[in-house]
UniProtKB/TrEMBL annotation:
This is Hydrogenase expression/formation protein HypE. Residues 1-40 are annotated as: Disordered. It comes from Streptomyces aidingensis. Residues 83-195 form the PurM-like N-terminal domain. It holds the Pfam family AIRS. Residues 7-31 have a biased composition (Pro residues).
Amino acid sequence: MADTSPAPLPPSAPPSASPPGPGPGAVPRPGLPEAEGWSCPAPLRDHPVVVTGHGGGGALSAELMTHLFAPAYGEALLPGLADSAVLTVPGGPRLAFSTDSYVVRPLFFPGGSIGDLAVNGTVNDLAMSGARPLALSCGFILEEGTALRTVDRVARAVGAAASAAGVTIATGDTKVVEAGHGDGVYLSTAGIGLVPEGVDIRPERAAPGDVVLVSGPVGAHGVAILSVREGLEFGAEVRSDTAPLAGLVRAMLDVTPELHALRDPTRGGLAASLNEIAAASGTGVVLAERAVPVPDAVTAACGFLGLDPLYVANEGRLVAFVPRRHAEAVLAAMRAHPQGAGAAVIGECTEEHPGMVVARTGLGGTRVVDLPIGEQLPRIC
């Protein structure tokens, strides 16, 4: 790997650069709720209503969970705030549990649909804790006036994706909202899986010296959605990478159960996943930007639209933090699996700049890769 030593971090802002408080004599803004009792700092106070970025998987989503939902749930909340939680059944196995909702627009896109997206997304969240997915629930929220042939097409995609992933649709629900109060079809899925003995995969376990691997080229899903939604062409069709990843994770675990952290970089892209793991583990991440595989059509689309591929969503990729002594063997196992054929080493963990992600650019410089505030491309999952 090329030299990936991070550049010096910028100096901290002086105290005077902190956002000012209301101060004496401040005039309240009309129409805004009283926020003095909230437990959250800015920028939530700057958004008295829900904005699209709150669902984007970036900083706004994290602040909404940390400063609004977590205090509201109180002692009922299981610590960790992970995409999937590992629960120990007294006297029994460890189970992974996950839930998700899907509001993608359009419902059908190159390479997939909301149906297989919902199945694969929940299966992958379970797999990121090392679990073998067992069963899913699937709830349909339908808008009045939606063609039944559209609902049938989505339902068939759900069934086909579940069969391909080896999971059972164990239960479900259907609700209908009035015309104009939905967007055709929304889906909500939850899943359970079995975590093997000796497997402990969570973001807090990433450690200095770990090698960072990605399972294949990034950015295709977000660009595929955008191309259909906006009627754009980029010289070649970009197809979503949506796919189940549990089989790939099993192949990696067959090499070693000592995988430290796994993430499927969906909303917020690779940048969000790397930042989440860096923050949870307190380690720094150095990313070799040129080593990150990006399809040519995605590179062209991002250049045309002013997007950064690191922040574009994926639905069939994973990023892994692996102890260096196992990295070569795990990489080989990934490349031998259909869902990991394009796997690559993209960085490493360091004791420097704890909790931050720094990219070494192709020109030899460095830049900080921040957690995105919201989402460059909303409604992509």
